[in-house]
Model the fold of this input.
Amino acid sequence: MRFLIICGVLIVVLLLLIWKIGTMRSAAREIREGLAEKLKTETNTLLTIDSQDRAMRELADALNVELRRLRAQRHKYEQGNLALKEAVMNVSHDIRTPLTAICGYLELLEGEEKSEAAQRYLQVIKERSEALKRLTEELFAYAVAVPAEYAECTKDMTNVSFFEGQDKPYEEVALNRVLEESIAAFYGALKTRKITPQIIMPDADIVCRGKPTALARIFENILTNVLKYSDGDLSVRLTPQGEVMFSNHAAALDEIQVGRLFDRFYTVENAEHSTGLGLSIAKLLTEQMGGSVYARYEDGMFTICLMFARVESKPYSPEE
Done:
């Protein structure tokens, strides 16, 4: 009888051990799957398990502490990365705009009468300016391409937008003014290419919500594209609805190439010193401000159309 009692007790203990091991394995599986899910997607939720086992719950709590620390570090990294990118982009843009004007006027100066020494000095200045311009292009391309690659690689780990974290909310910006300033900055370069732009704008300001620096980059990148491919003409039109159209004849392009110009790192074979990022950056910035952009090619005419959401209109005063 005693033997049977001992056997019964052992069987009960064995069953309890099997049950305990099963519940712990189930809790471990919950923790493993839950941790994988939390690392894969950005969420503020923490690990939860059904098990009442004290050791497994302590393990889950310890992992939750590490999850909070990881999220804080990732958020800090993202904010620092975005701040650095913004600073690099701003510095690059501030250098590129006057450099474009300088290079254009240097081209015009080459046609003026000057001494042999002046010609030699002018050539040195031109070479150094072009080198500096290429360096700023590479700096700007790096600032945009690296964070974009990071966002692409971690799109399942975070919902932070590529351009999120910049100084928002957006302000009200007159498209007329930014567009006019951008064209003026390219006057020398356009003059060198014998391009006289035909500009059509309404008398009233066309106001949208956005960032002046971002709009300037958009227009600058499109005008740079004009310098690469234009056959000698340019038409710029701003409609009262907030649509901006850049049109020029471009025999070097075709419909297939135009269809890919907004792809990152795509370059047309005859495009010199091109990073393949100009129009893709313009597209990203336009869409981040709630606008849209597309390109078309018809009968040798290349057109880029941008649409921004209009806020209001008011009398346009160029002298302000």
Notes: The CA atoms of residues 99 and 133 lie 6 Å apart. The radius of gyration is 30 Å.
